Amino acid sequence: MSNTVIIGGGAAGMMAAIQLLRNGEKVTVFEKNEKLGKKLYITGKGRCNVTNACAVEDIFANIVSNERFMYSSINAFNNYDVMGFFDELGVPLKVERGDRVFPESDKSSDILKALTDEMKRLGCNIMLNTTVKDIVLDETKVSGVVSGDGRFIGADNVIVATGGLSYPSTGSTGDGYRFAKKCGHTVSELSPALVPFNVKEDYVKELMGLSLKNVSIKIMPENTKESGNKVLYEEFGEMLFTHFGVSGPIILSASGRLAKRLKTENLRAEVDLKPALTVEQLDARILRDFAELQNKSFKNALDSLLPKKLIPVIIRLSGISAEKKINAVSKQERTRLVDLIKAFPFTVTGLRDYNEAIITQGGVCVKEINPKTMKSKLIDGLYFVGEVLDVDALTGGFNLQLAWSSAHAAAMDIVKCQS
């Protein structure tokens, strides 16, 4: 029996602990918070999107950084294995739109309780309110850790499951990156990801609170003429206007793809407010509406076409006088209105900070980690799992799948080394 210390009691740390304990290993989990899984508790708006029920090969299409690194661990412990794992723990699951998997109860607390109860049942030594100050090495081998109060705890293996920098209030304060650097590892550039966008235009902020469903967005370089209208990101779904810019599912996914680019340049976004209609169909629809409202002013003719909050902004951007009678609106003006509805524009100036980011992009360089085992290639007995690694994915349960799979890989390697 080996002795493993796990730094961090989040999703990856708890999964690693359970897999080790089930195989007879001795495990101590250090968690700086007063309870385990603080970030897991708030994921999926408190519902916990545990994984995605798509085909296993489709998971890789949703991994943004270093998807090839995850091939072995995901194939060894895939999304269906995760669903089976929680089913065994007595947590019934359900599949929703986009193949997102949630507990039937819609309560992340059920996932957290199942994990915690299983750790306790298996005899895990859980050290709450306890930080780890340092990882102690014997040349190129792990020998233990030093706790925040200066105690040395010996260990044959140390698993770093500290998370990244996102939601620092949950304890994600970058400790894992410090440990990695101390042990000679490279940490790639870090950035908040799956995070809302800041927007330049004041008219977008006027729309605060407006939620749009079934819209599509295109994001391009700011100077579209120079870039040849190159589309960097395109998606269909829901978005939300906020006091600083935009948020919502399609925006968060866009940030995962574009986080690095936004550090150096602004980007132009265009929202198609009526993606189900072609330009011609939308024009015909507006003509029908206008035919019935000929004597009304323009500002009173858009109620059936657009959300109420959006109408004053659309009127201003269209350049058509709000008081102009519908029967006086020219074909050229109507064309401008159609173009505006099919490509509502704004400029993305950057990302919100880690306090609003679901994940951290960047992390421990995967070239220095064995992809089958999550074991350091530099230090024997040292493992990195979950968000601390330079691996991240889009929304939809994929980031938790990375945590479960990487944690399982590390635990199974430790078990194998003891057999």
Walkthrough of the structure:
By secondary structure, this protein is α+β, with helices and mostly antiparallel strands. It has 2 domains: 3-191 and 358-418, FAD/NAD(P)-binding domain (3-Layer(bba) Sandwich); 196-352, Orthogonal Bundle (Helicase, Ruva Protein, domain 3), CATH 1.10.8. Helices cover 33% and strands 23% of the residues. The chain has helices at residues 11-22, 38-46, 56-61, 71-76, 79-88, 108-121, 175-182, 202-205, 224-227, 249-258, 279-292, 311-318, 331-342, 398-418, and strands at 3-7, 26-30, 51-52, 63-65, 93-96, 100-103, 125-127, 132-138, 141-147, 152-154, 157-160, 191-193, 197-199, 211-221, 233-241, 245-247, 267-272, 344-351, 359-361, 382-384, 392-393. The strands form 6 sheets. It has a 6-stranded antiparallel barrel with strand order 13-16-15-14-17-18. β5 and β6 (100-103) form a beta hairpin. α1 packs parallel to α14 (398-418), α2 packs antiparallel against α6 (108-121) and α12 crosses α13. The longest helix has 21 residues, at 398-418. The model has no long low-confidence stretch (mean pLDDT 95).
